């Protein structure tokens, strides 16, 4: 793909193309430019509709796909312009808008933008005086994960480890807390789907709470080993993919199949860790959707203890603020390659897909993540080791 200059106003209605895997592409008009020169950036084409109105499009990496139309780009003034009032419309091909526009000067601090939606286009206005980042959610890129894991490791008993590399060679790191005398494992997974940032925020808050080092948490880590893989799809994150990895595969449909480097890495780590009496007793997978939902295994499924997830969610409901609605959604999906289902079928224990709403308040996400970690620690410590072992004859 190639950059196309629009400095000639006679050509200003032509589209310019972006490549998600080749950064530093730009779409230049007389007054402003749109660029994708950073990880997580995503645009496919742009068009000038009038003097100050621009239409930008985003398209999926491949199809079929569960549509989560992501976009992220920089908009900047060209040299001749000092300030510019502009209108931007974003349209996702074959999909309705999902993520609401946010603006940042430094890609770290974000604010919501007023918008309207019409004809499947989301439109907002800017007074442009400096370069701005625009994205559907806050940006959490691969470097931020690595930095965060390093900080957690320095301040806690967790150790940062490298599990391997993604399809395109990006590091997939994790955090581990392991005591040679422990045999029970908690597994925490995140970012299988790149745009699901509220789930990522919840995972960060959850792990930060788990690593606090209180007496209760110390007691927890004296009994349980923990493996955390916060960013399983770094290629998709870097490319601004809607859902898939660099090979166009939904990683949360590959568990049990293990056709992808990323899921196979986790299986290899399991095989290495879970020898002898070592076993997984609970697993969490963080995601985002339209509302806050906890996807659980049914209580009559072949997992132990049968009421574990329900008891944990009841504690969250009791301890968190009343404005947060705990929505359990039990169900099974054999053969679909979903992580939660794989854990239940392979290890006969509960796994929960922890979904945060796309627009859930960020302060609330952090609060709920903290409460979820505290109550899970309590719930797991209250559960005797034998109760995590499924028996067909158990009542």
Under CATH at level 1, the class of the largest domain stands as Alpha Beta
Poorly predicted sequence stretches spanning 5 or more consecutive residues: 1-24
Total number of domains: 2
The secondary-structure class comes to alpha/beta
Shape: elongated
The CATH architecture term of the largest domain is 3-Layer(aba) Sandwich
From the 3D structure, determine the CATH topology of the largest domain: Aminopeptidase
Structural overview:
With 395 residues, the protein is of the alpha/beta class. It folds into two domains: 4-135, Immunoglobulin-like (Sandwich); 142-388, Zn peptidases (Aminopeptidase, 3-Layer(aba) Sandwich). Strand 2 (26-28) and strand 3 (32-35) form a beta hairpin. The strands form three sheets. It has an eight-stranded mixed sheet with strand order 13-14-16-15-17-20-18-19, with helices on both faces. Strands 1-2-3-6-12-8-9 form a seven-stranded mixed sheet, with no helix packed on it. The chain is elongated. The model is unreliable at 1-24 (pLDDT under 50). It has helices at 142-155, 197-210, 215-223, 234-239, 261-273, 308-319, 339-347, 362-382; strands spanning 4-5, 26-28, 32-35, 45-48, 53-58, 72-77, 84-92, 102-104, 111-112, 116-118, 121-128, 132-135, 159-165, 171-177, 184-190, 224-229, 279-289, 293-296, 328-330, 351-357. 25% of the residues lie in helices and 27% in strands.
Give me some keywords for this one:
Aminopeptidase, disordered N terminus, 395 residues, alpha/beta, Immunoglobulin-like, single chain, 20 strands, elongated, 2 domains, 8 helices
